[in-house]
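Re-run with default settings, no changes from the original entry. Doing this only to confirm the output is reproducible before filing.
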Amino acid sequence: MSTQIEIREQRRREVVEAIVLRQEPVHLVQRIYNVPERSVFNWLSLYRSGGWDALREGARSGRPRKLSTEDMRWVYYAVTLGNPQQYQFDFCLWTLNALRTLIEKERKVKLSKSAVSRLLRHLGLSPQRPIYKSYQQDPRKIDRYLKETFPEAVAQAQRLGAAIFFVDEAAVRSDAHRGLTWGKIGQTPVVKNSGGRFGLKVISAVSPRGDMRFSFIEDKMNSTKFIAFLKKLHRDAGQPILVITDNARYHHSKETQRFIAEQEGKILLAFLPAYSPELNPDEQVWNHAKRRLSQLSIFNLRDMKRHLTSILRSIQKQGSLIRSFFRMDSTRYILEALG
């Protein structure tokens, strides 16, 4: 086999691995490998019909492809760019049955439910809890933030040599209804509050470089505690910092604003649009932490703090995981602004 053929086969395999195994977005893989979109979907279609061997030069045998390259492309964009209501369904979440019906109607191809599941995974898609956006969001303010506020803040941070951090506070409660519980088949379990609930308040910060810091908050969060966290974050960073956070009252308080003014550029603040938590990658820290916490046995506040500390330290050590929070559809704007 010639070197050129080996290079081409290796490239096909790397592209398919990135999408199927690492579940990276098609458009990102296409850009990284500088491959035409049609080629990407053609390789995915070959892999779907014949596995890894189908990607070899001149050895593309396998079962006949039910879905063509264009069919694969159509399904991918139907799921990632649309929702069922655009296709006259009465609900807003993609299910295997909904997609099975849609593929048969629009592409004239009949697939089993399990075949649709395999198809979606071959396209780098997976079942996920959706992000629900608040009806109180103002699209104009989000647009202004993405096009003006954030890029201007980044430009100022770069002039000052500042590290960028996104900050978020979270409350973790013992009665949070997360995860699954066992019960009788056909009878939905009812979880009653005992009245003896307990919880913790935590603040964290993440950076596009993969850094993470967190602190537990005693009692209620306020300006004094927020300022103390900013001081510690600045000290740990060892350079000026730009902090992007939400619009909690103590973030905008006179005490906080006075403190920021006194820093003379060593600590900068910028604010996310109201009701837009999906724009903050630090939200994903709490999605991960709370999901993992829900799987553990917790009997009291000490247990909760011990387990949560362990989980947060684990996330803290995984720079690649933290960086992935900045590559989501709703947070990719950050990396684009940073160039």
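The CA atoms of residues 99 and 105 lie 10 Å apart. The chain has a mean pLDDT of 86.
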